[in-house]
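hey can u run this one w/ zinc ion bound, need the structure tokens asap thx
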Amino acid sequence: MDARLKEFAKLLVDVGLNVQPGQTPRISASVEAAPLARLCVEACYDRGAREVIMDWGDDFVAQQRYLRAGEAVFSEYPSYAKAKLDWLLEKKAPNLSIASGDPELFKDVDPARMQAARRAAGEPSRPYYDAMTANRFQWCVGSYPTLPWAKKVFPDLPDDEALAALWDAVYSVCRVNGDGKAVERWQAHIEATARRAQALNEYNFKSLHYTNSLGTDLTIELPENHVWAGGADKTPDGVAFVANIPTEEIFTAPRKDGVNGRVYAAMPLSLNGSMVEDFWLEFKDGRIVDLHAEKGEEHLRRSVELDDGSHYLGEVALVPYDSPIRNTGVLFYETLFDENASCHLAFGSAYPGSVKGGDDMSEEEQKAAGLNQSINHVDFMVGTKDLSIVGVTHDGREVPVFVNGSFAF
Ligand code: ZN
Ligand code: ZN
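ok here u go:
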């Protein structure tokens, strides 16, 4: 156990953050994740960090605050919190977040309180998070399995076995096996992913046509200047980092008004703890015009109707059916993992970097480039064992992209 935890910490710091000598990384983790967070602190200093800023959270305290603090608290954003983010941004401090969340931690909290808090934090924290999504500094999100999470994933196992099973699953999909070579395995994985993304970028497809035996028949047009990305990202200084561990996807954005046909989900979707099962979405000129779910249809409908942008796709991501996450057969109830189990789409916002120069575009320019905008971003799985995707180039050539659920090249 210890050897794997150490290897995991090294993977997050060496490959995820790629901390450079003299940098000031910031790590946020809840106290539950202390064993991993402390190993990450050590690994940062091993790489020559100037100082490691540790931000401890506590799931229990966060829950009590949302349940019991005075109402007015949630519409305030303290100036010291903003000052801290501004300081971290000025230092371009690499940011590692270790998520250990209980998927049901906030299930009894009044959603209005959480919404108010999100809104209050929105403006003041925006420069920081905009810089992060535009990759102005290194950032990485990793996970630390905890008992409430393990019980959600393996409800029939006794506590200790459930927790051990979740750890095994997380290690296996993160390519950590205790031999100390996870970093090498990730370097090979990142290179293979980059090669495929480059091949897709060279084809510069006009559209993708999805079909499978579930009944999916969907055409997705891509923006003229779309960019496929996957594996590692780069800061403006040229430092490579991996924003999500694990990651298997290669993704870009569809053209907002260029999606037509019907797509069937390949896996259940967990929406804020509510399950949506066996569903399809129908598109006309980009917009979701009809939907159906055998279970949880009202949750799906509410999410699609959250704002206008939720009616359109913002992400198209390719993941081979034969991926390490899929092969565990585990539904993690955690997007970081589940979205890497299968080809997926997302309704809601697009990543600005999905078009050339998008990270430096204004919202208006992003819109003009064909990117969708929304306060929502909901990933759902569409990849099956028999999924076929055919790319059509601007000069009308048809190129197999996916055959039988996996890359054709
Ligand atoms: Zn994705
Ligand atoms: Zn997504």
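Residues 204-228+248-407 form one domain. anyway lmk if its weird
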